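Weekly modeling sync, notes
Attendees: S.R. (lead), two postdocs, one rotation student

Agenda item 3: backlog of single-chain predictions. S.R. asked that every request posted to the team notebook include the full sequence so nobody has to chase files. The rotation student volunteered to paste the first one in as an example of the format we agreed on. Action items at the bottom.

Example entry:
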Amino acid sequence: IQKSIRNGEKLEQEKKFEESAEEFSNAIEVIENVIGVKNEDLAMALTSLGRVQEKMQHHKDAKESYERALEVYTELHGETHKTVAECALQVAEIMIVMKEGTSALKMVTDAIETLEAFYGKHHSAVAIAYCKRAEVYNQQENYRLALADAEKAFSLIRNMEGVQHPEIIKCFMSKGYSYMLMQLNSKAKEAINSGLNIAFINYWSKEEGKRIKDDSVGPGIVSELYNNLGTVYYQQRNFALAKKIYYLSVALNDKIVGREGADKGIALNNLGMINVKLKLFDEAFKNFEDAYLIHKDVYGSDSLHVAMYYNNRAVAFKCQRKYDEALLEIEKAIAIIKDNPNTELDLSEFLKNKAVILKGKKALPEAEKALRESLEIKETLYGDQHTAVLELLWKIYSISEVEEENKKLLDRIRNVQKALT
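Predicted structure, as returned to the notebook:
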């Protein structure tokens, strides 16, 4: 067992991830089938396997390994032990990547409580947990809560570890993402560029594009920063520069990851949406297809990332006024995720896109129905006094054809505006 674990660690350091995963799997098999006892070695081997799978961007497999490790640690130590909380954060990290925000939020919040009870409030482990919760809040469109957690994490890590700690980069990424989604593009660029500068200065060689100091900062986080920066320029309608940055993200994955990783798929999807804006539809469909093949392999055919493929194709068809084709694609996207409890927000967005397509087909009652379904999801998640709810109320009001209903909608809009003000 120990020999397999040592070999796995050695191969991991040599970036031979597939061989490393095989060694850790061998150790797990021996422990389970020969010894037959759930012990620390089993939990450590499962955690190591999950870490290697994560580096290979096999997130679904990594999540399974981390969850099995969490189960073993919980049996050994109980639910309120620091080791259990730290393992829970690893599971949450994968959930964030896989857009399972609802489950991730509870897991991270419980971990914060456990770690604060064990270490006190001023500890790097607590700061890292706050940083992860900021990522979840961003996914759930709670941008101000995300900023508050990112700022708290940033202050704790800076004071205890200094600005060269890799989690500082994630703090900047969370802040940049919050500002980006709040349309505060100047602040977003400042935060994202700060993260990139720290990554390049302290961990990367600009010339070679290789890590030079710390393996904990991989190409994924830099690629994600580039993706976010590209989206900022996209929002500013600087499509040419956004396209160059998305290309840079794709090239980074090709050069450093050396395989078809999930981050490359995200960059390809972003690139495709730029090409839709530039009316380069053949290029866009090729980008979407390449991303689909990657994400289907990494996440499976019933994943949110595969659903995004159909959603993106729907957007492209809609921009060409091919509404029948667009409707078929968006229905496929909705069918994949409609029963998944962790993808409510994405389902709400898909329903909004469906409404736009139906509006293009002049099917206003059906479009209103889709918007009301989207509204119901947002109200369930956020309550009835949220900016996302207000946006949907305005959309419904703009297409509603029933005068009495319009009066009720206007009253609701005024009440939400008053509450938000």
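Discussion: group reviewed the output briefly. The first strand starts at residue 204 and ends at 205.
Action items: rotation student to repeat for the remaining queue; S.R. to check formatting next week.
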